[in-house]
Amino acid sequence: MVLRRPRVVRKLVAIALTSVSGAALAQSRSEENAVTQAEDAFGFSVGRESLGIYNAGNARGFSPSAAGNLRIDGLYFDQIYNLQGTLVDSTSIKVGLSAQGYPFAAPSGIVDQALRRPGDKAGASLVTNFDSFGTVGVEIDGSLPINENLSLGYGLNGTRVEFPDGTDNWNHTESLIARWRPAAGIEIMPFWAVIHDYNDEAGIFYIPAGRFLPKLPKQRHHEGPEWADYSYTGLNTGVLSSARLAENWVVRLGAFRSSQKLKTSFTNILDDEQPDGSGDRLLFADPPLKSWSNSGEIRLTHSIPDGPRLHVIHLSARHRNSRREFGGSDFIDFGPGAIGTKVPDPEPAEFHFSEKSHDLLKQTTVGVAYDGRWKDVGEISFGISKAHFRKETVIPGVPVAVTRSTPLLYNATAAAEIAKSVAVYAGYARGLEESGTAPANAANRNQPLPAIITEQKDGGVRFNLTKDVKAVVGVFDLSRPYFGFDAANVFKQVGTVKSRGAEFSLSGSVTPRLDIVAGGMILKPKVTASDAVSGNIGSKPVGLPTHLLIANANWKAPFAKGLELDMAVSHRGRTPATTDNLLFLPPRARVDIGSHYRFKIANRSATLRLQIVNLFDNPGYSLAGSGVYTANAGRFAQGYLTVDF
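Above: the chain sequence. Below: its structure as tokens.
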């Protein structure tokens, strides 16, 4: 007698052994819509659209990107320059229940980037974008099958960007990706992408002299020197591969190199700004800087079907080897200046750069993880890994600093279906994470910060309100070292921070015509200052608002075929603006409205996307560090036209 596996187990086996983390083959770009494609409100982007309460720079009050919690199709990636848009199909932020099933969960959340995989049929999409500031760009990407086993994907992008603060730049991107299946059960995907950025004028940071928010210039009014331009090249290369070794055995490999070459770099500051907008004009010029990182992961996965249950075991080895350059800056004091007055000074004949600093980092992490799934009962997973970390920091005139750490890292999650449409979950994770770099206004500006141990506890409930609408409500508690300014203006660890909060998500199709994605985060963080640090350290961490609420809706209009109308509403709570908590940003609300119009051009699918951003013209302030401000964009219009071939 031949026993047949239940359909649900066959499906779970396929999910566990898939060669990518849910990324579909490249679809037509004209179908892109973040509201209709997002699975939850925690963070999602596709093409040129994004939504969610979190993003790669901020999840539950911390930065997954700075922490090193990035993935490419589920595999470990250490990023120097972010993946070029012509490579990426979509990006999802995984926290709480949405991270269930991801081996080796990270405390600050996971940012999973799905590559735009070449399809089996020839095709391309042309996208032209524009906005009311004057930005114009054109992008083309597509697939070119060579034979039944090999397909090529390509992407080209050229854009002239006009920024809200009056600066501008010109950039172009090229990318190539191949999908090769030399034999049954084997897939190899090498990729390459480069971006060149030119004449990228350095915007101005505003630092007030006292306990008040700075006066900011009018939109589209740049007052810095025209010659202070960024110029850089960002490069990402790598290969993703998978092989089915036997039934229920798969090995996956991801090997990546990410690099950035800064040719010219400047930081513009209006320092000690007075209430009338006057202050001191300062400029930092950086020497050419190069940074790179080689990283990757090899993972062996074995699935064991067991009636209505499925057991999945992962063995993983991750590695990164990176070098980051910093320092060596020159400094120019232009003297007194004021908002409304442009810096007239010519470019110096030469800059006098000092010797550069750098850090060398090597880390290897090996681990084992288990994921068990039981139909209509629940899921349990855990992982344990050992990290070997070494960082060498070389600063001229200072003894070489070597940091070593071999922590044991672990995580565990569990979910139980307590009713047909209700599941509860809980989890714990302990991780080794990066802390980013010191901000531009610090005495140790751009210096890499040390790696840290972080911990996270979370739990919650998921409801299937209807067949097509689901809700998630959760709570979390994160602990990690806290970085801020001491009395000497050095950005360093000044204490610890515990972030407790709640989050929720509501998403799905309310009716065949109406899709919604709504969510929120309520945060109650607390800083405990170190006794050894001088200076006034407030109890609230800089940049973390009391809450963030969002609501997105997409409605298919019945009176016009192909027309969809959408609205996005967000509200950010009061936010500490300085390490000493003597100044806060006020709450800020924003409303965006837009539309997608899907139609045919020469029998080809096309979509015209139009949007008014910040409808009620409420720019507010943006924080670039403790006591450092820029302005958000006021009201503007943007759009793009996509045509599939």
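Residues 7-17 form the longest helix (11 residues).
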